[in-house]
């Protein structure tokens, strides 16, 4: 492991959180068809209540804070909140659709917030594709202009693209656009249900035929993971960091193990400290147990378990059981494993495969 992976492993094992995601609001100026947020009509935290929440998170020793939504920049007090987060010495990341970021906003973000990264959702390489998902005319050009304004100020931008049946034919163009905008790019090939369990967003998934191609040599130049790698459950025993390395808060102050697995732990305004809840919560204890159980049961019993990127929260939303294999995870693992086996065979025949451990090890039958 490298130094960063070693830190993650240590925190996962000790259940010491280093990050928190705070959904400041569910208000949004987009109407994305696959958005997972489900507003309940409750009153969102006011400025002072957000400050109280931030202080409790900071007192707990969390370093990385992600300000999310909805669209966090829709909050009129966003800069007040961001300045308070900065005063508390958080390393700030912002999730945004960038619709409100013009030159003036970019300058304020640079001068007042100093985020170490802004993550911006990009849904296509063309206006018609991007806006088919945001359902807001002009949102594509606004995004492009915003990224240019941010990059002119040397602010780090990560463009995030969920692969859908609308944009799967544009992945190379999307990558070219990210390069043109001098920004990093992350493709996400899993579409998730809504937080209330509504499965409708899954209909936007790119489908099996595309995923078969995605994990083949055809898209090796586009993927971040050039060579699929097997899981290593020795160093990191839990399937993920839910309830271990981080946690999430909704706009009402409710604490969850992560943004996907919404088992309510407590409300941050009703507890004296995060530390007390973190160690004493029966919900968190159960979730940590389940996260350690999955590699030893669900994944161990699956033919593709060694190549499965498994999210217990998504499993829970789709099947009602956080330990049950769900369709996207199994599908992606199948083609990741196939590519790995093919590359291993080529390596065994003497070919040097960049990124593949050249020590040939038989991978299943």
Largest sheet, spatial ordering of strands? 6-5-4-3-2-1-7-8-9
The CATH architecture name reads Alpha-Beta Barrel
What class do helices, strands and sheet pairing give?
A: alpha/beta
Tell how many strands the DSSP assignment holds.
Answer: 9
CATH class: Alpha Beta
Average pLDDT rating:
91
What fold name stands as the CATH topology? TIM Barrel
Q: How many domains, as an integer? A: 1
Shape: globular
Tally of contiguous helical segments: 12
| N-end to C-end Cα span | 28 Å
Rounded to the nearest angstrom, the radius of gyration is 21 Å
Order of helices and strands: HEHEHEHEHHEHEHEEEHHHH
Helix content: 25-40%
The major β-sheet equals:
9 strands, mixed
What layout of secondary structure does this protein have?
Blueprint: H1 3-14, E1 19-23, H2 47-59, E2 64-68, H3 78-87, E3 91-96, H4 103-113, E4 117-121, H5 127-134, H6 139-152, E5 157-162, H7 171-180, E6 184-188, H8 208-214, E7 246-249, E8 254-256, E9 266-267, H9 274-280, H10 282-296, H11 312-319, H12 327-348
Parallel strand pairs: 1-2, 1-7, 2-3, 3-4, 4-5, 5-6
Antiparallel strand pairs: 7-8, 8-9
